[in-house]
Structures are given as C-alpha cells and as structure tokens.
Amino acid sequence: MLRPATDADVESIRRWRNHPKVRRASFTTHEIGQEEHRAWWESVCGDPSRHVLIYERAGSPAGVVVFTDIGEGTVEWSKYVDVEGLGTDRGAAWEELEHEAIDYAFDVLGATRIGAATLAANTPVLRLHERVGFTEVRRYTREVGGESREVVWNELSATTWREGRS
Question: To the nearest whole percent, how much of the chain has pLDDT over 70?
Fold first, then answer.
C-alpha cells in the first residue's frame, strides 16, 4: 500500500536512504545528515510537482517512492526500500513497490509516461524495469560521488503498462 509521507516518516526515509546498499545505487552517495534531509523534506512539501509516498508492507513502513513532474504528462521517479527491515523479503517488496507505484503514477497522478534514471551497474533494478515494460531510451554519463558513471534512462507509457496487465 502507498500513502503520502508525513513528518513522522522523515527520519525513517533518511535512515533507509543512508543504508550503504542504497547509497551505492544512488546519485547522492554521501551519508545525508539531519539538516540536509530536513531541507530536502521542506522543499518537497512546498513543491506541488513532487509527491513523496511511503510504501507499507504487512502494515509497516518499508520504503519510499518520490515522483517529480517533469512535464508533458511525464513523471520521473526514484524509490528505495528499508534494506535492513525487509531482510530476505526485499525482492518481493521491490516488485510490489514497483507495481503499486506505477499504478499510482498512471491512475492517481494521471501521468502518461514514467521515466527512470538508473545507474547502469544497478542491473537488478534495470531487469525489474524491463520485466514490467520499461524500455531503454538513452544512456549518458553523469558524475556520481566524484567519478563518471553510466546512467540508463528508461521509460514506461501508460498504454504499454495497461496492455501488459490485461
């Protein structure tokens, strides 16, 4: 289940985001302090083009997805889960979060397309995106943690998603 994030979720989001496995797969690789995270939270709360949702699994907060409206019906997303809290259930949680977030983007936000920027080395996420219907649009290089890293931009259209579900 997805629900809007609240002030009560802020520290959990930061803890999940700072997990070493999450940082290795992210564009921001340093450990995020409370002050930096609070500034991020205040900026997203004041920005109607951004939506922060908490993913709950078995009634407990277990991950987060952030949607950013990038125009013309397209939203970009990023997401991560509670690596420690989910343990061996992490793969199933990723899959469930992916599906629920896609439905939310198309059915609630009214997006026509979802875009995702993923480090090329993050093959598990790229494979998951491919399984649900994302297609690679382009590759580019971006500085991450002081080094050049290859990034894959994938997109999924609402039409492709709905056709794959029927």
Answer: 99
Lowest mean pLDDT among 5-14, 68-77, 87-96, 98-107: 87-96
Between CA 11 and CA 63 the distance in angstroms is: 12
Smallest CA-to-CA distance from 150 within 12, 67, 32, 27 is with 27
CA distance 35 to 117: 26
Distance of CA 73 to the CA centre of its chain: 18
Which pairing describes strands 60-71 and 74-81: parallel, antiparallel, or unpaired? antiparallel
**What is the assigned CATH class of domain 2-165?**
alpha beta
Give CA–CA dist 149/103, Å, rounded. Answer: 30
Alpha-carbon gap, residue 56 to 64, rounded angstroms: 9
Q: Where are the domains of the chain?
A: 2-165
- DSSP-assigned letter for residue 26: S
CA pseudo-torsion sign 106, 109, 115, 117: negative
Q: How many other CB atoms are there within 10 angstroms of residue 71's CB atom? A: 7
- The model carries a pTM of 0.91
Q: What is the pLDDT of residues 37-54, one digit of tens each?
A: 999 999 999 899 999 999
**Dihedral sign from CA coordinates of 46, 27, 67, 115:** positive
